[in-house]
Q: What sequence folds into this?
């Protein structure tokens, strides 16, 4: 019998695995203290980033770097602005 | 408005980066095209920034110094007074503080003050973000019933996180300005909890 596929989203990276391997990966992530959202029926899991890791980075006061696209799909990184002061504004249409 | 501020302060050494926490570039397009930004104006469909910076609502601003360090943590600031009648928050004082910092007239917050005002995520907050991310992926796959369960779970885990509770509404076919939002807001604020949480010295 062909085994069912299982999708693991590892902080956004998409991994297509056999079901047993996907469940095992999710279980290992949970055991390592990562937040895991699991839907066995949908055969999908999202592995997030642990609070302590995020908190450590923020408490060090180093602004976490990111790369995101503009409307035309061009990527921009915070780190490209090193040497200048930066006003970072998060907003939304909602 | 952020465009005007950037034009005013770019020669003084300020970069402005705006990030739309929206479901798709199309949801943000009208806003961006109206503002005609020449600074980086980015789209964050997966709430990467919310996860990295523990954002729980919008608008949220941060100051980052030239060495890449957080000089002022998550604060609420509006670029204009368009929504002042709704929010009770004036734009003038936060913008004056920013101008003074960029021009070197003030040092900004000391590191210990920045740390005092930082809000750090709890394990439950991060689990909520994982549930939101799974829900978002399921919704994009068209698996809407499963997505709804995880969106709801995310909101239950982090009831203070409106990037989840309100930000999920367009992804679930709910009007984020409509009765479901007003009901959520009333329920939240009736118990004396603020919808916006500006830093103490920015109250207008």
A:
């Amino acid at each position: 019998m062909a085994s069912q596929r299982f999708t693991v989203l590892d902080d956004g990276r998409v991994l297509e695995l056999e079901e047993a391997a996907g469940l095992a990966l999710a279980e290992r992530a949970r055991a390592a203290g990562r937040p895991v959202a699991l839907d066995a029926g949908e055969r999908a899991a999202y592995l997030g980033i642990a609070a302590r890791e995020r908190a450590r980075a923020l408490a060090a006061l180093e602004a976490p770097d990111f790369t995101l696209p503009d409307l035309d799909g061009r990527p921009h990184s915070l780190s490209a602005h090193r040497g200048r002061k930066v006003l970072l504004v998060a907003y939304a249409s909602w | 408005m952020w465009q005007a501020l950037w034009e005013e302060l770019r020669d003084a050494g300020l970069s402005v980066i705006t990030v739309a926490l929206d479901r798709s570039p199309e949801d943000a397009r009208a806003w961006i095209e109206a503002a005609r930004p020449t600074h980086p104006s980015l789209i964050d469909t997966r709430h990467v920034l919310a996860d990295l910076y523990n954002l729980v609502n919008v608008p949220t601003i941060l100051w980052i110094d030239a060495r890449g360090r957080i000089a002022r943590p998550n604060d609420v600031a509006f670029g204009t007074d368009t929504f002042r009648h709704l929010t009770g928050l004036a734009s003038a004082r936060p913008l004056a503080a920013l101008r003074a910092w960029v021009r070197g007239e003030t040092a900004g917050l000391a590191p210990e003050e920045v740390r005092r005002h930082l809000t750090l995520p709890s394990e439950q907050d991060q689990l909520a973000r994982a549930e939101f991310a799974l829900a978002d992926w399921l919704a994009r796959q068209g698996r809407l019933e499963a997505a709804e369960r995880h969106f709801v779970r995310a909101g239950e885990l982090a009831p203070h996180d409106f990037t989840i509770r309100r930000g999920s509404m367009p992804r679930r076919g709910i009007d984020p300005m409509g009765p479901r939002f007003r009901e959520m807001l009333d329920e939240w604020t009736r118990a004396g909890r603020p919808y916006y949480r500006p830093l103490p010295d920015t109250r207008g």
Notes: Chain B has a mean pLDDT of 93. The longest helix of chain B spans residues 123-140. Chain B touches chain A through 84 residues (CB under 8 Å). The first strand of chain B starts at residue 14 and ends at 20.
